[in-house]
Structures are given as structure tokens and as C-alpha cells.
Amino acid sequence: MNTPRLLAAFASGLLFGAGLALSGMMDPARVLGFLDVAGAWDPSLAFVLAGAVGVSALGYAVKARMPRPALADRFEIPANRSVDARLLGGAVLFGIGWGLAGFCSGPALAGLTLGLPEVALFVAAMLAGMLLFRFTAPRSTRPITVSR
Fold first, then answer.
1. Is 80 exceeded by the pLDDT of residue 39?
2. How far apart are CA 129 and CA 124, in angstroms?
């Protein structure tokens, strides 16, 4: 990876982590409060998600006007756009894990900076699951990207 791409990736990750910290999304209690619709519901995650959708929509609008990315030869867009059993099963597993732990991958990685053992345990389990998939899934089911 060349230096400008590495610096852009670092700056993007730093901005994302700062946004997670600022919004309180590194706190699993806030996430679990959002998921507790029958109890003490905390709507703050809905505002964070709405902001993320807005930023993503803006990014896609800008991408549509660009012939290629600023720091790459082509855009990497997922080829599979269908909703299938694998996608639904993955979403269910993600939701169960998110609801049990109050973490998803981004806030968990950012949360490592807090030095809490439960965050480290979650990240270790997440990495173990990723490795398990990598070594057990048939090659045809692994994610691929193509340019458009």
C-alpha cells in the first residue's frame, strides 16, 4: 500500500473512531438501551445511524460523478446484490451478537483503546469467528469484489 492511501486509511479510521467515541457508541449500555424498545429505550443510536446513512448517500452521489477514486485505480463494488439465505443468516447472527454484547466490530475495535477486558474478549471472539469462516467456508461463498 502506498503512503497516501495508508495515510487516508489511517485518517478515515481515526475520524470514524472519534465519531464513535463522541456519539457514545463505544458504550455497550447505550446500544443495549436502543435495543430495549420495551424498557428504557435510548433513541440516540437512531440518530447516529441516520447520520451514517446520510454520509453514505453523499458518498455514493460523489462516487457517481467520479471516473475513479482519488487513491485507487477503480471502485470496488460488491458483485452480489441479492438478498439470500447467507445474507439473512449473517444479519441474524450479527444482530444476536450485537444484542448480547452491545458491540459491533467498529465500536469494539475503537473500544480496545479503553483497555477493558470485556472489549478484548469480544474482539478475540470476533477474530476467531472470522478465522473460522475463512478456513471452513467453501471458496465460492467467500466475499469478492469487482470493479464497475
1. yes
2. 9
